[in-house]
Amino acid sequence: MEKYQKILEILVNDQEYVQYAYDRLVSVSENPKNYEDEFFRLPDKDSDLVWFQFIDDLIMNQYAFEADWKEDYSAVKIQIEKLLLKKGILNNLNHDEDLFDLEPKDYLPRINQLLSENHHLLVNLDLNSDSYVSTLINKSEVQILLSFDERIKLF
């Protein structure tokens, strides 16, 4: 459970939220019936419900977003702009005209090229599904964040 605390502290600057989210994760780890399936993930008996709760809470509190495998760039761009705004970062998705006709597997890595100019990146929180859960991080924290869990991946 300690890894979740550390991941939350990297992703979120709000200590009240970090404590709230961590308490919920502890609750689910102690009793899996406490998992609230807000996004209809329909977990099976082998699902990591703590991971699901972690991701669902990030999404519900606008620290991450989920995009379908076929989501067009314009919808994802709006979500990225919300993440940037939440972190107090000016929108730096300029020169993105060529991304609108691409699929997520192609435009998400290209978005990271644009974001990295201002020292930020998107990472994927892998759900083992056909959607992408993304959150915004500081580029300097990539390696430590990736070391916490193999389901955290760069695009």
Short description:
With 155 residues, the protein is α+β, with helices and mostly antiparallel strands. The chain is built from six helices and four strands. The protein is globular, with a radius of gyration of 15 Å.
Describe the sheet with the most strands.
4 strands, antiparallel
Oligomer type: single chain
Number of helices: 6
Give the SSE string. HHHEHHEEHE
Strand percentage, roughly?
5-15%
- Total strands: the figure is 4
The backbone outline, from C-alpha atoms, is: globular
Distance between the termini: 25 Å
The assigned structural class equals alpha+beta
Fraction of helical residues: 40-55%
The strand order across the widest sheet is 1-3-2-4
Description:
This protein has helices at residues 2-11, 15-30, 49-60, 73-86, 104-116, 142-148; strands at residues 65-68, 120-125, 131-138, 152-154. By secondary structure, it is an alpha+beta fold. A hairpin with a 5-residue loop joins strand 2 (120-125) and strand 3 (131-138). Helix 1 (2-11) packs antiparallel against helix 2 and helix 2 runs antiparallel to helix 3. The radius of gyration is 15 Å and the shape is globular.
